[in-house]
Amino acid sequence: MDKTVSSLAEAVSVIKDGMTVMIGGFGGSGAPIELIHALIDHGAKNLTVVNNNAGNGHVGLAALIEQGRVDKLICSFPRSADPTVFTERYKAGKIELEIVPQGTLAERIRAGGAGIPAFYTPTGYGTEVAEGKPTAEFDGRSYVQERWLKADVALIKGELGDAHGNLTYRMAARNFNPVMATAAAVTIAQVSRIVPLGDIDPEHVITPGIFVSHVIEVADPAQEEELNRAEAVYP
Amino acid sequence: MTDLADLKLSNAQIAWRAAQDIEDGAYVNLGIGFPEMVARFQPEGRQAIFHTENGVLDFGPAPEPGTEDWDLINAGKKAITLKPGTSFFHHADSFAMVRGGHLDVAILGAYEVAQNGDLANWSTGRGGIPAVGGAMDLVQSAKRIAVLTDHVTKNGDPKLVEKCSMPLTGVACVTRIYTSLAVVDVQDGHFVLREKVPGISMDDLQAVTGAPLHTEGEVGELTCPEDLE
Question: Measuring CA to CA, which of A64, A188, B14, B39 is 20 to 30 A from B4?
């Protein structure tokens, strides 16, 4: 078994118009910038994107939105240092927004990956985000029913990867990446280094390879924060 | 009436006062911005463990500019540092810590707090782009929910109110409010005044508070160090 692929274009070639794509990262930390840029080059459109944020500046997710490829965004916090791209498209009615509390977003994705179609959470009870959703009382407390979230494809970023798709992450860049890896039909991971099988201590594997479809090495991956400080624009 | 501007505490002083209530070993989440200042004022001999919802527990202060590692940030997307004892975890685990009631204290800002503990702090409801982040998760689940806020809005309107007029972040969740003029608990559906700054009368404080301030025994004096940074 060898899940490694040699080109970014090949890695994202499975993405078709209209698909739901989860993109890992929290702000720029853990964002698979090179995979997102390959998706822009690939050209798929009418996408629904799941991410914590809505992009920053004119690279990564912001660039994908700026190119008009995203019809709907499911996120918790569509603000950033420079949210201009998303803000303008949203105000022009060109992109749909579903706001989900951050923990509910993570748990909906977890549930999607774990085969749990719905669950109850105290989060959002009595607020706008619970409108229209079933509620129930358990042990004297009120909860809101939330549904699982799944995707056709997840684009994630790891640190080390091997031919079986086992992954490690780097510091807080872990964030949504391991959860999204479980919730997509096809998970594509960019990693800083592909290592031989056995080089990752089994005790240190964070995402077991069963959740990963393709692994591509991107040495020295770009950091969104640094691209933005350099006022980079993609493409 | 006394000029409130002369009496009110600075944000650093409000943060300092909140820090005095955090026990040694408490697990604490600080909201983005003003509440982050609380970490600077931990009393000598006490060490709280700070949680940031993007997936780090027990982290160090901001690094020197130029030495940032952008894989190591907090929920405000500011660079932080490692320290002995730091741990990383993914988002579902991070919010298991939150929702599972494992945090002792969450400290947030507010647009409005109602006397029953309802909190509005995510959307003014006047258009703009809604953004909630982790606030709705935090306020329903930490053992104590503390709010740091100016006692009144920029226009002088009360922020402690009978009923919130803006979209809610959570219902009946706030347990204590540290304002620029007072420390107020939410108890059994009403505000209980615990401390007030010296020089303000009960009547003047009530006049800038949107719901009745109850008292239980003596009201303490809210004094803070002057030279906080």
Answer: B39
Structure tokens that stand for A110 in this block: 């977890």
Mean pLDDT of A86-112: 97
Residue B3 predicted with pLDDT over 80:
no
Is the confidence at residue B102, as pLDDT, over 80? yes
Is A104 among the domain residues?
yes
Interface membership of A185 toward B (CB under 8 Å): no
Read off φ and ψ for residue A17, nearest 5 degrees. -55, 140
B-chain residues near A90 (CB < 8 A) = 129
Domains of chain B plus CATH, in order, are 4-221 (3.40.1080.10)
Contact between chains at B136 and A206 (C-beta distance less than 8 A) = no
Smallest Cβ–Cβ distance between B54 and the set A101, A110, A175 belongs to A175
- The answer to the question of residue A235 being in a domain is no
DSSP conformation class of B149: E
How many domains does chain A contain in total?
1
How far is A64 from A77, CA to CA, in rounded Å? Answer: 17
Quick check: A90 and B99 CB within 8 A?
no
B95 touches chain A (CB under 8 A): yes
A179/chain B closest Cα distance in angstroms: 7
| Cα angle: B173, vertex B177, B180; to 5 degrees | 155
Query: Cα(B96)–Cα(B101) distance, rounded to whole angstroms?
Result: 8
The pLDDT of residue A184 is above 60:
yes
Q: What's the CATH code of the domain at A106?
A: 3.40.1080.10
Residues of B in contact with A122 (CB under 8 A): 99, 140-141
